[in-house]
Design goal:
By secondary structure, this protein is an alpha+beta fold. Helix 4 runs antiparallel to helix 7 and helix 6 packs across helix 7.
Length: 226
């Protein structure tokens, strides 16, 4: 019995460090989203698409052929559990095989010593011609917004993958149970932070977070800096 109690307390103590992504941490907040022109411009283009998307969601007959699948996915997902919604949205976007190699070599900006994506596609742009990993993440983010997820519960997180030695983008979701999930491009949904991933920065339509410094520090040093 004593051993079980000890294990239970150790699990509770360790839980925060195992989160896929920490939405409660405001220490890494950097700036409003509008301060990053490339990202803000993408959000502006997305807002211009809103009427076309809403018309399609309300009436499938108003959808162009390439957009009908979006109507089906959103319509059938509305009354499902969050777990089911995340699985469907992740697979729906990932099945678009028009994947292009990241444009970082041509158009990467700087984020300290890190790479920063400087081109992003909107949902409709992605559905028509595919995109890079960050475009897959943006598309998932937008579909989840269409399903009623608030911007506060969603972030596009750019990570550095130590295994592939490449930068990559995933979608972080804060669910109703207070858990976080990462939607990845290989259909995986992580409940814990992958050990190979180092968080660099995150965005949603409102804000930018810079994780490039804090992610390299121990928890004790992070608390000291705060």
């Amino acid at each position: 019995m004593a051993r079980m109690c000890l294990l239970r307390h150790l699990c509770l103590f360790a839980a925060p460090t195992l989160l896929a992504y920490d939405f409660s941490d405001e220490a890494d907040y950097l700036a409003p989203a509008e301060n990053w022109p490339a990202w803000h411009n993408t959000m502006e283009r997305a807002s211009q698409e809103a009427n076309k998307i809403q018309g399609c969601l309300q009436d499938k007959r108003r959808c162009e052929r390439w957009l009908r699948s979006l109507h089906v996915v959103v319509d059938r997902s509305r009354n499902l559990s969050q777990k089911q919604q995340l699985e469907i949205v992740n697979r729906y976007i990932n099945r678009h095989r028009h994947y292009r190699r990241d444009r970082r070599n041509q158009d990467a900006a700087s984020w300290g010593d890190e790479a920063v994506f400087s081109q992003w596609s909107t949902l409709l742009e992605f559905l028509q011609r595919g995109g890079d990993c960050e475009d897959y993440a943006t598309a998932k983010y937008t579909v989840l917004r269409l399903l009623g997820y608030s911007a506060d519960t969603l972030r596009i997180v750019v990570v550095y993958d130590r295994k592939t030695r490449e930068y990559h983008a995933v979608v972080a979701v804060h669910d109703e149970q207070g858990n976080t999930r990462l939607l990845d491009i290989d259909n995986r949904i992580y409940g814990r932070k992958p050990t190979a991933y180092r968080y660099v920065y995150a965005v949603n339509e409102n804000s930018i977070w810079d994780h490039s410094v804090a992610s390299t520090l121990s928890k004790r040093r992070q608390r000291r800096i705060r």
